[in-house]
Amino acid sequence: MKYVGAIDQGTTSSRFILFDADGRIAASAQREHAQICPQPGWVEHDPAELWRNTEQVIGEALAAAGAAPRDVAAVGITNQRETALVWDRRTGRPLANALVWQDTRVAPYVTELSRAGGQDRFRAATGLPLATYFSALKLRWLLEHVPEVRRAADAGEALAGTVDSWIAWNLTGGPRNGRHVTDVTNASRTQLMSLATLEWDDGLLGALGVPRALLPAIHASSEVYGHATIAPLRDVPLAGILGDQQAALVGQTCFEPGEAKNTYGTGCFLLLNTGTQPVPSTAGLVTTVAYRFGGEPACYALEGSIAVAGSLVQWLRDNLGLFERSADIEGLARLVPDNGGVYIVPAFSGLFAPRWNARARGIVAGLTRYANRGHIARAALEAVAYQTREVVDAMERDSGIALSELRADGGMVANELLMQFQADMLGVPVVRPKVFETTALGAAYAAGLAVGFWRSREALRRHWQAERRWDPGMPAEDRARLYAEWQRAVGRAVDWLPE
Q1: What is the CA radius of gyration of the chain?
Q2: Which stretches in the chain have pLDDT values below 50?
Q3: In this structure, is the dihedral angle defined by the CA atoms of residues 183, 188, 191 and 194, taken in order, positive or negative?
Protein backbone atom coordinates (compact mmCIF):
# COMPACT_ATOMS: atom_id res chain seq x y z
CA MET A 1 0.00 0.00 0.00
CA LYS A 2 1.26 3.45 -0.96
CA TYR A 3 -0.50 5.92 1.30
CA VAL A 4 -2.04 6.82 4.62
CA GLY A 5 -4.92 9.31 4.49
CA ALA A 6 -5.80 12.07 6.94
CA ILE A 7 -9.15 13.81 7.34
CA ASP A 8 -8.45 17.27 8.74
CA GLN A 9 -11.80 18.76 9.76
CA GLY A 10 -10.89 22.24 10.94
CA THR A 11 -12.68 25.37 12.03
CA THR A 12 -12.82 26.96 8.59
CA SER A 13 -12.39 24.06 6.17
CA SER A 14 -12.29 20.31 5.65
CA ARG A 15 -9.32 18.66 3.96
CA PHE A 16 -8.17 15.23 2.98
CA ILE A 17 -4.46 14.61 2.48
CA LEU A 18 -2.65 11.49 1.28
CA PHE A 19 0.85 10.98 2.68
CA ASP A 20 3.44 8.58 1.31
CA ALA A 21 5.82 6.42 3.33
CA ASP A 22 8.28 9.32 3.73
CA GLY A 23 5.59 11.59 5.22
CA ARG A 24 5.35 13.69 2.05
CA ILE A 25 2.07 14.96 0.63
CA ALA A 26 0.99 12.98 -2.42
CA ALA A 27 -2.36 14.69 -2.97
CA SER A 28 -4.80 16.90 -1.11
CA ALA A 29 -8.17 18.63 -1.46
CA GLN A 30 -9.86 21.29 0.65
CA ARG A 31 -13.27 22.97 0.96
CA GLU A 32 -14.31 25.85 3.23
CA HIS A 33 -17.58 25.77 5.13
CA ALA A 34 -19.89 28.52 6.36
CA GLN A 35 -19.29 30.34 9.65
CA ILE A 36 -22.76 30.90 11.09
CA CYS A 37 -22.95 33.81 13.57
CA PRO A 38 -26.64 34.37 14.46
CA GLN A 39 -25.84 36.65 17.42
CA PRO A 40 -22.77 38.40 18.83
CA GLY A 41 -20.58 35.77 20.46
CA TRP A 42 -22.42 32.85 18.83
CA VAL A 43 -20.51 30.72 16.30
CA GLU A 44 -22.07 27.66 14.65
CA HIS A 45 -21.36 25.13 11.91
CA ASP A 46 -23.79 22.99 9.94
CA PRO A 47 -22.77 19.38 10.74
CA ALA A 48 -24.30 18.13 7.49
CA GLU A 49 -22.08 20.54 5.54
CA LEU A 50 -19.01 19.36 7.47
CA TRP A 51 -19.67 15.74 6.54
CA ARG A 52 -20.69 16.55 2.95
CA ASN A 53 -17.47 18.51 2.41
CA THR A 54 -15.43 15.76 4.02
CA GLU A 55 -16.83 13.17 1.62
CA GLN A 56 -16.14 15.45 -1.33
CA VAL A 57 -12.51 16.19 -0.45
CA ILE A 58 -11.79 12.49 0.13
CA GLY A 59 -12.97 11.70 -3.38
CA GLU A 60 -11.14 14.67 -4.90
CA ALA A 61 -7.78 13.87 -3.29
CA LEU A 62 -7.95 10.19 -4.20
CA ALA A 63 -8.82 11.10 -7.79
CA ALA A 64 -5.91 13.56 -7.93
CA ALA A 65 -3.53 10.81 -6.83
CA GLY A 66 -5.12 8.19 -9.08
CA ALA A 67 -5.57 6.10 -5.93
CA ALA A 68 -8.11 3.43 -5.03
CA PRO A 69 -9.05 2.11 -1.56
CA ARG A 70 -6.53 -0.72 -1.99
CA ASP A 71 -3.73 1.87 -2.13
CA VAL A 72 -4.58 3.32 1.31
CA ALA A 73 -3.28 1.48 4.36
CA ALA A 74 -5.34 3.43 6.89
CA VAL A 75 -7.02 6.76 7.53
CA GLY A 76 -6.82 9.06 10.52
CA ILE A 77 -9.00 11.93 11.71
CA THR A 78 -7.93 15.24 13.20
CA ASN A 79 -10.45 17.88 14.11
CA GLN A 80 -11.41 21.17 15.70
CA ARG A 81 -11.61 19.95 19.25
CA GLU A 82 -14.15 21.58 21.56
CA THR A 83 -16.92 22.03 18.97
CA ALA A 84 -19.97 20.03 20.14
CA LEU A 85 -22.98 18.57 18.33
CA VAL A 86 -25.91 16.18 18.73
CA TRP A 87 -27.51 13.95 16.09
CA ASP A 88 -30.22 11.30 15.65
CA ARG A 89 -28.78 7.78 15.85
CA ARG A 90 -31.55 6.34 13.62
CA THR A 91 -31.39 8.81 10.73
CA GLY A 92 -28.01 10.49 11.12
CA ARG A 93 -29.71 13.89 10.96
CA PRO A 94 -28.10 16.64 13.04
CA LEU A 95 -30.54 17.89 15.68
CA ALA A 96 -29.02 21.37 15.77
CA ASN A 97 -26.06 23.26 14.42
CA ALA A 98 -22.72 22.46 16.04
CA LEU A 99 -21.63 24.97 18.68
CA VAL A 100 -18.09 25.96 17.76
CA TRP A 101 -15.26 26.18 20.29
CA GLN A 102 -15.25 29.97 19.83
CA ASP A 103 -18.92 30.27 20.85
CA THR A 104 -19.50 32.18 24.13
CA ARG A 105 -23.23 31.66 24.74
CA VAL A 106 -22.54 29.40 27.74
CA ALA A 107 -20.93 32.23 29.73
CA PRO A 108 -23.87 32.31 32.23
CA TYR A 109 -23.21 28.65 33.03
CA VAL A 110 -19.56 29.47 33.71
CA THR A 111 -20.60 32.23 36.13
CA GLU A 112 -23.15 29.96 37.84
CA LEU A 113 -20.72 27.07 38.34
CA SER A 114 -17.86 29.32 39.39
CA ARG A 115 -19.91 30.67 42.30
CA ALA A 116 -19.68 27.25 43.97
CA GLY A 117 -15.97 26.55 43.98
CA GLY A 118 -14.38 29.12 41.70
CA GLN A 119 -13.16 28.97 38.12
CA ASP A 120 -10.78 26.10 38.96
CA ARG A 121 -13.27 23.84 40.73
CA PHE A 122 -12.80 21.07 38.11
CA ARG A 123 -9.15 21.74 37.28
CA ALA A 124 -7.70 19.01 39.54
CA ALA A 125 -9.78 16.35 37.78
CA THR A 126 -9.71 17.65 34.21
CA GLY A 127 -6.74 20.03 33.94
CA LEU A 128 -9.14 22.70 32.66
CA PRO A 129 -10.62 25.88 34.13
CA LEU A 130 -14.29 26.70 33.80
CA ALA A 131 -14.56 28.56 30.50
CA THR A 132 -16.83 28.92 27.50
CA TYR A 133 -14.16 27.11 25.45
CA PHE A 134 -14.79 23.48 26.39
CA SER A 135 -17.45 21.08 25.12
CA ALA A 136 -19.54 20.00 28.11
CA LEU A 137 -21.42 23.24 28.66
CA LYS A 138 -22.18 23.48 24.94
CA LEU A 139 -23.86 20.06 25.15
CA ARG A 140 -25.76 21.21 28.23
CA TRP A 141 -26.94 24.31 26.34
CA LEU A 142 -28.23 22.19 23.45
CA LEU A 143 -30.07 19.91 25.86
CA GLU A 144 -31.69 22.84 27.68
CA HIS A 145 -32.46 25.13 24.74
CA VAL A 146 -33.29 22.88 21.77
CA PRO A 147 -36.46 20.86 22.50
CA GLU A 148 -35.71 18.32 19.76
CA VAL A 149 -32.36 17.54 21.34
CA ARG A 150 -33.95 16.99 24.76
CA ARG A 151 -36.72 14.79 23.33
CA ALA A 152 -34.24 12.64 21.41
CA ALA A 153 -31.97 12.33 24.45
CA ASP A 154 -34.86 11.31 26.70
CA ALA A 155 -35.97 8.72 24.12
CA GLY A 156 -32.47 7.24 23.81
CA GLU A 157 -32.29 8.32 20.17
CA ALA A 158 -29.56 10.97 20.43
CA LEU A 159 -25.80 10.69 20.06
CA ALA A 160 -23.44 13.51 20.97
CA GLY A 161 -19.79 14.31 20.81
CA THR A 162 -17.09 16.41 19.27
CA VAL A 163 -16.50 16.63 15.53
CA ASP A 164 -14.17 13.60 15.44
CA SER A 165 -17.06 11.44 16.70
CA TRP A 166 -19.42 12.82 14.04
CA ILE A 167 -16.94 12.16 11.23
CA ALA A 168 -15.97 8.69 12.54
CA TRP A 169 -19.62 7.64 12.93
CA ASN A 170 -20.50 8.68 9.38
CA LEU A 171 -17.31 7.22 7.93
CA THR A 172 -17.91 3.79 9.47
CA GLY A 173 -21.58 3.33 8.58
CA GLY A 174 -23.63 6.07 10.20
CA PRO A 175 -27.12 4.73 11.06
CA ARG A 176 -25.95 1.30 9.85
CA ASN A 177 -23.75 0.39 12.84
CA GLY A 178 -21.42 3.36 12.65
CA ARG A 179 -18.80 3.43 15.40
CA HIS A 180 -19.54 6.03 18.09
CA VAL A 181 -16.01 6.70 19.34
CA THR A 182 -13.62 9.43 20.39
CA ASP A 183 -10.01 9.41 21.54
CA VAL A 184 -8.41 10.50 24.79
CA THR A 185 -7.18 13.82 23.38
CA ASN A 186 -10.62 15.00 22.29
CA ALA A 187 -12.24 13.59 25.43
CA SER A 188 -9.76 15.55 27.54
CA ARG A 189 -11.16 18.78 26.05
CA THR A 190 -14.78 18.16 27.06
CA GLN A 191 -14.30 18.77 30.83
CA LEU A 192 -16.05 15.44 31.36
CA MET A 193 -13.08 13.04 31.39
CA SER A 194 -10.83 12.36 34.37
CA LEU A 195 -7.14 12.82 33.54
CA ALA A 196 -6.34 10.08 36.07
CA THR A 197 -8.66 7.35 34.73
CA LEU A 198 -9.06 8.50 31.09
CA GLU A 199 -12.78 7.71 31.42
CA TRP A 200 -15.97 9.74 31.65
CA ASP A 201 -16.40 10.83 35.26
CA ASP A 202 -19.84 10.48 36.87
CA GLY A 203 -19.27 13.45 39.18
CA LEU A 204 -18.39 15.72 36.28
CA LEU A 205 -21.28 14.42 34.17
CA GLY A 206 -23.71 15.23 36.97
CA ALA A 207 -22.28 18.64 37.78
CA LEU A 208 -22.18 19.74 34.14
CA GLY A 209 -25.53 18.22 33.15
CA VAL A 210 -24.54 15.79 30.39
CA PRO A 211 -26.02 12.23 30.31
CA ARG A 212 -23.42 9.48 29.85
CA ALA A 213 -25.67 7.66 27.35
CA LEU A 214 -25.13 10.39 24.76
CA LEU A 215 -21.35 10.12 24.74
CA PRO A 216 -18.96 8.03 22.64
CA ALA A 217 -16.60 5.35 23.91
CA ILE A 218 -13.12 6.69 24.71
CA HIS A 219 -10.23 4.97 22.90
CA ALA A 220 -6.51 5.43 22.37
CA SER A 221 -5.36 7.87 19.69
CA SER A 222 -3.81 5.11 17.58
CA GLU A 223 -5.78 1.88 17.12
CA VAL A 224 -8.22 0.38 14.64
CA TYR A 225 -11.72 1.64 15.53
CA GLY A 226 -13.56 0.26 12.51
CA HIS A 227 -13.53 0.33 8.71
CA ALA A 228 -14.81 2.91 6.25
CA THR A 229 -18.02 2.17 4.38
CA ILE A 230 -18.05 5.10 1.93
CA ALA A 231 -17.05 4.17 -1.62
CA PRO A 232 -13.75 6.08 -1.99
CA LEU A 233 -12.31 4.44 1.15
CA ARG A 234 -14.37 1.25 1.37
CA ASP A 235 -12.92 -1.19 3.93
CA VAL A 236 -9.93 1.06 4.75
CA PRO A 237 -9.26 0.96 8.52
CA LEU A 238 -10.00 4.05 10.55
CA ALA A 239 -6.99 3.81 12.83
CA GLY A 240 -6.12 7.21 14.27
CA ILE A 241 -7.96 10.08 15.98
CA LEU A 242 -6.28 13.14 17.49
CA GLY A 243 -7.53 16.61 18.33
CA ASP A 244 -5.94 19.06 15.95
CA GLN A 245 -3.35 20.53 18.30
CA GLN A 246 -2.25 17.18 19.66
CA ALA A 247 -2.05 15.96 16.06
CA ALA A 248 0.33 18.82 15.26
CA LEU A 249 2.48 17.85 18.26
CA VAL A 250 2.70 14.31 16.85
CA GLY A 251 3.29 15.63 13.32
CA GLN A 252 6.21 17.70 14.63
CA THR A 253 7.48 14.47 16.31
CA CYS A 254 7.60 16.15 19.74
CA PHE A 255 7.71 12.80 21.52
CA GLU A 256 10.11 13.72 24.33
CA PRO A 257 9.32 15.76 27.46
CA GLY A 258 10.35 19.38 26.94
CA GLU A 259 9.67 19.45 23.19
CA ALA A 260 7.15 22.07 22.07
CA LYS A 261 5.31 23.29 18.98
CA ASN A 262 3.05 26.21 18.14
CA THR A 263 0.32 25.95 15.51
CA TYR A 264 -0.73 29.17 13.79
CA GLY A 265 -4.22 28.45 12.51
CA THR A 266 -7.66 29.86 13.25
CA GLY A 267 -6.36 30.21 16.79
CA CYS A 268 -2.85 29.70 18.12
CA PHE A 269 -1.97 26.69 20.23
CA LEU A 270 1.32 26.04 21.99
CA LEU A 271 1.85 22.54 23.40
CA LEU A 272 4.74 21.28 25.54
CA ASN A 273 5.19 17.53 26.01
CA THR A 274 5.45 16.78 29.75
CA GLY A 275 5.69 12.97 29.58
CA THR A 276 3.52 10.32 31.20
CA GLN A 277 2.48 12.40 34.23
CA PRO A 278 0.07 15.32 34.00
CA VAL A 279 1.61 18.60 35.20
CA PRO A 280 -0.81 20.99 36.95
CA SER A 281 -0.60 24.59 35.79
CA THR A 282 -0.37 27.58 38.12
CA ALA A 283 0.24 30.12 35.35
CA GLY A 284 -3.03 29.98 33.41
CA LEU A 285 -2.32 27.07 31.05
CA VAL A 286 -4.31 23.87 30.71
CA THR A 287 -3.20 20.30 31.30
CA THR A 288 -4.29 17.98 28.52
CA VAL A 289 -3.66 14.54 27.05
CA ALA A 290 -1.03 14.78 24.30
CA TYR A 291 -1.61 11.31 22.79
CA ARG A 292 -1.94 7.65 23.62
CA PHE A 293 -0.63 5.04 21.20
CA GLY A 294 -2.33 1.65 21.54
CA GLY A 295 -1.93 0.13 24.99
CA GLU A 296 0.96 2.38 26.01
CA PRO A 297 0.56 4.87 28.86
CA ALA A 298 -0.87 8.23 27.82
CA CYS A 299 1.45 11.20 27.39
CA TYR A 300 0.38 14.60 28.64
CA ALA A 301 1.05 18.21 27.68
CA LEU A 302 0.77 21.74 28.96
CA GLU A 303 -1.15 23.87 26.48
CA GLY A 304 -1.63 27.57 25.93
CA SER A 305 -4.74 28.18 23.82
CA ILE A 306 -5.17 31.48 21.97
CA ALA A 307 -8.64 31.97 20.53
CA VAL A 308 -7.88 34.32 17.63
CA ALA A 309 -4.93 34.22 15.22
CA GLY A 310 -5.69 33.43 11.58
CA SER A 311 -9.33 34.28 12.20
CA LEU A 312 -8.23 37.88 12.84
CA VAL A 313 -6.82 37.98 9.31
CA GLN A 314 -10.05 36.44 8.05
CA TRP A 315 -12.03 39.14 9.89
CA LEU A 316 -9.97 41.93 8.31
CA ARG A 317 -10.60 40.32 4.91
CA ASP A 318 -14.30 39.47 5.21
CA ASN A 319 -15.73 42.04 7.64
CA LEU A 320 -13.58 45.08 6.86
CA GLY A 321 -12.57 44.30 3.26
CA LEU A 322 -8.94 45.36 3.75
CA PHE A 323 -7.72 42.82 1.17
CA GLU A 324 -9.07 40.11 -1.12
CA ARG A 325 -6.98 37.10 -0.05
CA SER A 326 -5.65 36.27 3.40
CA ALA A 327 -2.13 36.01 1.98
CA ASP A 328 -2.34 39.68 0.94
CA ILE A 329 -1.97 40.85 4.52
CA GLU A 330 1.81 40.40 4.45
CA GLY A 331 2.29 42.69 1.47
CA LEU A 332 0.00 45.29 3.04
CA ALA A 333 1.87 45.12 6.37
CA ARG A 334 5.22 45.54 4.60
CA LEU A 335 4.12 48.92 3.23
CA VAL A 336 4.90 50.43 6.65
CA PRO A 337 8.12 50.15 8.70
CA ASP A 338 6.36 49.51 12.03
CA ASN A 339 2.93 49.44 13.64
CA GLY A 340 2.67 53.23 13.90
CA GLY A 341 1.66 52.90 17.55
CA VAL A 342 -1.38 50.74 16.72
CA TYR A 343 -2.17 47.62 18.79
CA ILE A 344 -4.97 45.10 18.32
CA VAL A 345 -6.28 42.85 21.08
CA PRO A 346 -8.44 40.30 19.20
CA ALA A 347 -10.62 39.18 22.12
CA PHE A 348 -13.60 38.28 19.92
CA SER A 349 -14.49 35.37 22.24
CA GLY A 350 -12.89 36.70 25.40
CA LEU A 351 -9.28 35.92 26.23
CA PHE A 352 -8.11 32.33 26.62
CA ALA A 353 -4.72 31.33 28.08
CA PRO A 354 -3.23 32.54 30.28
CA ARG A 355 -5.91 35.08 31.33
CA TRP A 356 -9.20 33.14 30.88
CA ASN A 357 -11.26 36.33 30.85
CA ALA A 358 -14.63 35.69 29.22
CA ARG A 359 -15.69 39.34 29.59
CA ALA A 360 -12.83 40.70 27.49
CA ARG A 361 -13.65 42.01 24.02
CA GLY A 362 -11.53 43.05 21.08
CA ILE A 363 -10.10 46.54 20.77
CA VAL A 364 -7.89 48.56 18.44
CA ALA A 365 -5.75 50.95 20.49
CA GLY A 366 -3.35 53.78 19.65
CA LEU A 367 -5.15 55.13 16.59
CA THR A 368 -4.09 58.54 15.27
CA ARG A 369 -4.63 60.34 11.95
CA TYR A 370 -1.23 58.91 10.94
CA ALA A 371 -2.50 55.30 11.09
CA ASN A 372 -3.45 53.60 7.82
CA ARG A 373 -4.41 50.17 6.45
CA GLY A 374 -0.81 49.00 6.57
CA HIS A 375 -0.49 49.79 10.27
CA ILE A 376 -3.69 47.88 11.03
CA ALA A 377 -2.47 44.89 8.99
CA ARG A 378 0.88 44.93 10.77
CA ALA A 379 -0.78 45.30 14.19
CA ALA A 380 -2.91 42.24 13.44
CA LEU A 381 0.13 40.08 12.68
CA GLU A 382 1.97 41.42 15.70
CA ALA A 383 -1.02 40.59 17.94
CA VAL A 384 -0.52 36.91 17.11
CA ALA A 385 3.12 37.09 18.18
CA TYR A 386 2.39 39.04 21.38
CA GLN A 387 -0.23 36.49 22.44
CA THR A 388 2.24 33.67 21.80
CA ARG A 389 4.90 35.46 23.86
CA GLU A 390 2.46 35.67 26.78
CA VAL A 391 1.78 31.92 26.58
CA VAL A 392 5.50 31.07 26.31
CA ASP A 393 6.21 33.11 29.43
CA ALA A 394 3.49 31.18 31.31
CA MET A 395 4.78 27.85 30.02
CA GLU A 396 8.31 28.58 31.19
CA ARG A 397 6.98 29.47 34.66
CA ASP A 398 4.96 26.24 34.88
CA SER A 399 7.54 23.85 33.47
CA GLY A 400 10.80 25.44 34.55
CA ILE A 401 12.02 24.83 30.99
CA ALA A 402 13.39 27.78 29.02
CA LEU A 403 12.41 27.52 25.36
CA SER A 404 15.47 27.15 23.12
CA GLU A 405 13.55 27.22 19.84
CA LEU A 406 9.94 27.13 18.70
CA ARG A 407 8.73 24.68 16.06
CA ALA A 408 5.97 26.42 14.13
CA ASP A 409 3.31 25.01 11.83
CA GLY A 410 -0.12 25.82 10.42
CA GLY A 411 -1.27 28.06 7.61
CA MET A 412 0.13 31.31 9.00
CA VAL A 413 3.75 30.08 8.97
CA ALA A 414 3.85 31.02 5.28
CA ASN A 415 3.84 34.64 6.49
CA GLU A 416 7.52 35.44 6.82
CA LEU A 417 6.95 38.86 8.38
CA LEU A 418 5.03 37.19 11.21
CA MET A 419 7.65 34.47 11.69
CA GLN A 420 10.48 37.02 11.95
CA PHE A 421 8.51 39.18 14.38
CA GLN A 422 7.72 36.08 16.45
CA ALA A 423 11.42 35.23 16.73
CA ASP A 424 12.13 38.86 17.66
CA MET A 425 9.40 38.90 20.31
CA LEU A 426 10.50 35.58 21.89
CA GLY A 427 14.24 36.14 21.60
CA VAL A 428 14.69 32.54 20.34
CA PRO A 429 14.72 31.01 16.83
CA VAL A 430 11.49 30.01 15.12
CA VAL A 431 11.76 26.93 12.89
CA ARG A 432 9.37 25.97 10.08
CA PRO A 433 9.32 22.32 8.94
CA LYS A 434 9.34 21.20 5.32
CA VAL A 435 5.81 19.85 5.73
CA PHE A 436 3.68 22.76 6.98
CA GLU A 437 0.56 20.66 7.44
CA THR A 438 1.71 18.84 10.54
CA THR A 439 -1.84 18.57 11.92
CA ALA A 440 -2.93 16.23 9.14
CA LEU A 441 0.48 14.54 9.22
CA GLY A 442 0.05 13.73 12.91
CA ALA A 443 -3.32 12.06 12.25
CA ALA A 444 -1.72 10.07 9.45
CA TYR A 445 1.17 9.06 11.73
CA ALA A 446 -1.27 7.81 14.40
CA ALA A 447 -3.20 5.76 11.84
CA GLY A 448 -0.08 4.44 10.13
CA LEU A 449 1.50 3.31 13.41
CA ALA A 450 -1.65 1.38 14.30
CA VAL A 451 -1.51 -0.74 11.14
CA GLY A 452 2.28 -1.08 10.81
CA PHE A 453 2.66 1.27 7.84
CA TRP A 454 5.30 2.97 10.00
CA ARG A 455 7.11 0.76 12.47
CA SER A 456 8.13 3.17 15.20
CA ARG A 457 8.24 6.76 16.39
CA GLU A 458 11.95 6.77 15.62
CA ALA A 459 11.11 6.18 11.97
CA LEU A 460 8.79 9.19 12.07
CA ARG A 461 11.51 11.37 13.60
CA ARG A 462 13.72 10.68 10.59
CA HIS A 463 11.08 12.31 8.35
CA TRP A 464 11.17 15.67 10.15
CA GLN A 465 13.27 18.33 8.43
CA ALA A 466 13.55 22.07 8.93
CA GLU A 467 12.70 24.16 5.86
CA ARG A 468 13.36 27.68 7.23
CA ARG A 469 14.71 29.24 10.41
CA TRP A 470 14.28 32.79 11.70
CA ASP A 471 16.74 34.08 14.28
CA PRO A 472 15.87 37.02 16.54
CA GLY A 473 17.35 40.35 15.51
CA MET A 474 15.44 42.94 17.54
CA PRO A 475 17.26 44.81 20.33
CA ALA A 476 16.09 43.72 23.78
CA GLU A 477 14.91 47.22 24.72
CA ASP A 478 12.67 47.43 21.63
CA ARG A 479 11.24 43.99 22.38
CA ALA A 480 10.43 45.03 25.95
CA ARG A 481 8.86 48.35 24.89
CA LEU A 482 6.58 46.86 22.24
CA TYR A 483 5.43 44.03 24.51
CA ALA A 484 4.74 46.44 27.38
CA GLU A 485 2.64 48.66 25.12
CA TRP A 486 0.62 45.69 23.91
CA GLN A 487 0.07 44.63 27.54
CA ARG A 488 -1.34 48.09 28.24
CA ALA A 489 -3.80 47.59 25.39
CA VAL A 490 -4.81 44.21 26.86
CA GLY A 491 -5.50 46.00 30.12
CA ARG A 492 -8.19 48.04 28.32
CA ALA A 493 -9.78 44.94 26.78
CA VAL A 494 -10.16 42.75 29.89
CA ASP A 495 -13.51 42.85 31.71
CA TRP A 496 -15.00 44.97 28.92
CA LEU A 497 -18.44 43.44 29.50
CA PRO A 498 -20.12 44.03 32.85
CA GLU A 499 -20.64 41.19 35.32
Answers
A1: 21
A2: none
A3: positive
